[in-house]
Amino acid sequence: MNYRVLGKDLTVSAVGLGCMGMSHAYGAPPDRREMSALLAQAVELGCTFFDTAEVYGSPDNPHHNEELLGQALKPYRSKVVIATKFGIRFDMSSPAVNKPLIPDSRPETIRASVEGSLRRLNTDHIDLYYQHRMDPKVPVEEVAGIMADLIREGKITHWGLSEADEDTIRRAHAVCPVTAVQNRYSMMARWYEPLFAALDELGAGFVAFSPLANRSPHKEGCTFTALSEVGKALEGAGVETETFWIGVKPLSGCIACKTCASKHKCVFDDAVNQFLDIAGDYDGFVFGTPVHWGGATGALTSFLDRAFYADFCGGGNRFLLKPAAAVMSARRAGTIATWDQLNKYFGLMQMPIISSRYWNMVHGAAPEQARKDLEGMQTMRILGKNMAFFLKCKEAGLAAGVPLPEQEAISFTNFIRD
Ligand SMILES: Cc1cc2nc3c(=O)[nH]c(=O)nc-3n(C[C@H](O)[C@H](O)[C@H](O)COP(=O)(O)O)c2cc1C
User: Fold this and answer.
1) 77 pLDDT above the threshold of 60
2) Taking burial as the number of CB atoms within 10 A of a residue's CB, which of 81, 153, 300, 343 is the most buried?
3) Taking the CB of residue 255, how many other CB atoms lie within 10 A of it?
4) What per-residue confidence (pLDDT) applies to 215?
5) Which residues are catalytic?
6) For range 53-72, the mean pLDDT
7) Is the Cβ atom of 330 under 6 angstroms away from ligand 1?
8) In the chain, what are the domain boundaries?
């Protein structure tokens, strides 16, 4: 194992172990004993750098990951560097499957967080304490001031920032030297490379998260950025919105078993059925996808194949005459083909397709880039407003006594008759 120094004096193994997936974001936590053995094995192999966060939890235990590390790493505590993070929580009041993140770096919140993390990690100090995400309501200088206090008090020995840009890092560093910045970095995600020179200049280290690349759709990537802009426009027009993320677990394609005809849902009980359970309560849909190889992602394609087929065969009518739109994000090309692909679903499902002033696309390889695509973001806002208008017209029409058209039984006329 090679070792590196982050900042002035924090020596860590060059390969660290990110522990999030042992508790959070990748389904139910795996067996605790197996994970404890894996952590011990990592130490034996020379890994001395372990990464967790206050919010890496499971539905039953919101701090599952810190507790796991606190227990499993106790025998090795003096040999290892433990990094954890503060400054975000989940909005538990949201009915969404994936709860929205709320940044919160108020001094009193940080004080409570550090005590909780110390207790769960079974330790009297945290080696590297990251602000998980910036809090637009609390200047980073104020956060850095609290970090300086915590270092003086011996509760933490080093601090850092996660998903931070150069300006924020410089402002923070001026108050209390930053030891490391943890941002996404892999051969698929190279947009932070221009930051390296500034970090060299400041003497701060760079810790890569998802260094082997994790599967897109990124939960808060470009597609999410585009969908959020549509959502804001809808909310601005008085229409409530909800985000349903299909997640990163493998999604089988449709196996044409037709179980859905009798069960009214898919034979595979996964995100598709979760979506079908709630889809009937919604009045309109915007489906987003990054462009992968010139089309929608394999996961979204499988998801829509199964969700719509289950509704169609099962006579669910969850989507009948509800407006729909598809939104694509791409680094360069393939958006139009993807739009064609997704609009075809709506054509089969009797879903009026809502358009904008341009085709519904944003360009970028990272959310910051997508946000800079001003025309793309405008297209999203117009789409949201147009969809809100349609929804209101439909509601007004129904209220005025205009009924939904009567449905005819389907005549299946195959090209080859038997
Ligand atoms: C497997 C894969 C295939 C991709 N194929 C394309 C492509 O065909 N055209 C393109 O412009 N971008 C392509 N990209 C880049 C993404 O579409 C682009 O970065 C997108 O904005 C990412 O959105 P996200 O942050 O929501 O994942 C591809 C990315 C991946 C991971």
Assistant:
1) yes
2) 300
3) 11
4) 44
5) 56
6) 92
7) yes
8) 3-209, 222-399
Torsion of CA 16, 70, 90, 380, to 10 degrees: 10
Name the pLDDT band for 120 (thresholds 50, 70, 90).
very high
Gap from CA of 211 to ligand 1 centroid (Å): 17
| CA pseudo-torsion sign 313, 319, 323, 326 | negative
Q: Is the pTM of this model over 0.85?
A: no
Average confidence (pLDDT) over 353-381? 95
Is the CB of 329 inside a 6 Å radius of any atom of ligand 1?
yes
Confidence of residue 402 (pLDDT cuts 50, 70, 90): very high
The reply to whether ligand 1 has any atom less than 6 angstroms from the CB of 221 is yes
Pocket of ligand 1, candidates 191, 214, 292, 380: which has the most ligand atoms within 8 Å of its Cβ, to mutate?
292
| Beta carbons of 106 and 161 less than 8 angstroms apart | no
To test the pocket of ligand 1, the residue of 184, 216, 360 to mutate (highest count of ligand atoms within 8 Å of its CB) is 216
Average pLDDT over residues 40-51: 97
Return the residue whose CA atom lies nearest to atom 2 of ligand 1: 292
User: Which atom of ligand 1 is nearest the CA belonging to 223?
Assistant: 26
| pLDDT for the residue numbered 29 | 84
Q: Is there a common fold for 3-209 and 222-399? A: no
**Mean of pLDDT over the chain:** 93
Query: Which backbone phi and psi does 130 adopt, to 5 degrees?
Result: -95, 145
Q: Which two tokens stand for residue 343?
A: 């609009």
Range 3-209 classified under CATH 3.20.20.100: yes
**Best mutation site among 286, 291, 361, 369 for ligand 1 pocket (most ligand atoms within 8 Å of CB):** 291
Ligand 1 pocket residue status of 217, Cβ below 6 Å: yes
Q: Are 83 and 6 in contact (CB under 8 A)?
A: no
Nearest protein CA to atom 16 of ligand 1, as residue? 330
How far apart are alpha carbons 251 and 302 in whole angstroms? Answer: 6
| CATH, domain 222-399, list 3.40.50.720, 3.40.50.360, 3.10.450.50, 3.40.640.10 | 3.40.50.360
